[in-house]
Write a structure and sequence with these properties.
10 strands, 26% helix, 7 helices, alpha/beta, Rossmann fold, 5-stranded parallel β-sheet
Length: 265
């Protein structure tokens, strides 16, 4: 929120659940006996990771049900006001941030394609995150990043390879929003209808199943697309900060049971 105030328009956060007009549940809660008549549920994981719903809640939002986008919280430790005023300042070409997880199809695809890029183009990409464990600062591999703070792997780079944990409609996460907030152009695989949410030209779709995918990623990273796309990236940043951000999503969700129908389609 602006100034880290916990206030967004007419919304104000409170830690006292008894004085809250609405309760926000993201995926699940350890609290017992919450008042579901004033609870907004937002599902944040696809069914192959966890399948949670709250049909008795005041609002039951889930992107898999086609009534919501994934309400965004960014994994970049930069406050809202600083992000609003952030200017692009790039010194490097291409990065990726990845864990060493391989449990889902998307995680496995992402891990394998990163390894292929590193093997074929070791000087063309910087690799950050848990995937660097055991090989930090060796070749393409840089370092592990602080929890939920990817800025060192994003801010200096024009392009970022962004691959979701799966490919579904309405499902886009910090994988694509973090690079955009840092003025990095995502080379992206994931949300099947991302063009409904973000302006074309703010990202580049890549088919990770294409045998030429890694060559195309490197070709893009050596192009001038980033320089020619700053206006579109700027538009995407405004949408992320002021529409898809968790706070405005809550505000809009109070007034409708279908965010997509009212605000997208």
């Amino acid at each position: 929120t602006p100034n880290n105030s916990g206030v967004w328009n007419e919304l104000e956060s409170t830690y006292n659940i008894d004085e809250a007009n609405y309760i926000i549940m993201q995926e699940e809660t350890s609290l017992n006996n919450i008042d579901k008549n004033k609870t907004l549920f937002f599902g944040k994981e696809p069914h192959y990771i966890v399948k949670n719903r709250c049909p008795d809640c005041f609002r039951n939002f889930h992107f898999e049900d086609g009534n919501s986008w994934f309400p965004q919280t960014w994994w970049v430790n930069i406050p809202y006001n600083e992000l609003k005023n952030l200017k692009p300042n790039k010194t490097k070409k291409l990065s990726v941030v990845n864990s060493n997880k391989r449990g889902t199809k998307g995680q496995s695809i992402r891990y394998d394609i990163i390894q292929k890029i590193v093997n074929k183009y070791p000087k063309e990409i910087d690799v950050w995150g848990g995937i660097t464990m055991g090989r930090r600062n060796i070749g393409s591999f840089k370092d592990v990043l602080p929890p939920q703070d990817k800025k060192d792997g994003l801010l200096p780079y024009k392009y970022h390879f962004a691959c979701e944990n799966g490919s579904k409609p309405f499902y886009f996460t910090e994988k694509i929003i973090d690079p955009l907030l840092c003025w990095s152009m995502p080379i992206y695989w994931g949300c099947e209808n991302i063009g409904k949410f973000l302006p074309k030209g703010s990202y580049i779709n890549i088919d990770v199943n294409d045998p030429m995918a890694i060559d195309k990623i490197i070709e893009i990273s050596n192009s001038n697309l980033w320089e020619n796309s700053l206006d579109k990236i700027g538009e995407a940043r405004e949408l992320i900060l002021d529409k898809y951000n968790l706070w405005p999503s809550i505000g809009m969700g109070i007034g409708t049971d279908n965010l997509l129908k009212k605000y997208i389609f």
